[in-house]
Description:
Layout: H1 12-17, H2 23-35, E1 41-42, H3 47-55, E2 60-63, H4 71-79, E3 84-87, H5 93-105, E4 111-116, H6 131-139, E5 143-147, H7 153-160, E6 166-168, H8 187-204, H9 216-222, E7 225-228, E8 243-246
Parallel strand pairs: 1-2, 2-3, 3-4, 4-5, 5-6
Antiparallel strand pairs: 7-8
Amino acid sequence: YQLEQTDAEESQMEMLEKFELPEKAFYDLANHARNRGIDFVCTPFDEESLELVAALKPAAIKVSSGDLTNHPFLRNVASKGYPVILSSGMSTIGEVEDALRIVRSVGLLDIVLLHCTSNYPASPENVNLRAMNTLRQAFAVPVGYSDHTVGLEISIAAVAIGALVIEKHFTLKKSDRGPDHAMSLEPYELEALVSSIRVVERALGDGVKRVDRSELDTRIAARKSIHLAMAVSEGEVLSADKLCYLRPGDGIPPSMINLVVGRQARSCLPAGHKLLIRDLQ
């Protein structure tokens, strides 16, 4: 992918150097993010970069999938004391376990694991989002998803099944030269993604099955009550064939049919009458 995005006469190093930011720019970015109420997070790829990132006092340090098995580097990252977001592309669950052991060995417990498929772009059929559940259950840590697919759908789906962190590449213009632009989101797409994720977050709720307050009117209107299918006289015994079930559900519910059948009518009642407890002897 990067070869296709690199001019024929330049090396990959030369291509990347064209996009390299000066050190001061990272301080400017970190300060700008904080001034806008945004947590600043950065990914170092070597020891020198790690020192710069730590000096920026980030909300967390992100470790790329490529460094999951770089145990000396992981230990140094963890020793900085910042929360760690650890991406797990290209790894087995055993390698993830080893990486977590290294990070925890220096006493750092504030860790988020990102499931990831390290292909650029990744195809939906290769994503295996359910692996997030495996990571959560196996290691009892918050999980998220590092998304290299094209579009918004997979990130939104990841949130729906429990991702607490989403990583998505971002660019000002997909047609720009250099790596990653083509699979990144432009500003309007990032806005749409964040908006959709916020909707899903609100929809997830707390998991308790209950009658929501917004359902109370519908509950009465949509459910049924026990009515008389025919007129009955005073003292007449009510049998199932004399009853029917009609909306609304503000009378005796059909679930209480056994409390009605075999009882006597307290008075003469017309066909279609909605039965109430006071109608029964």
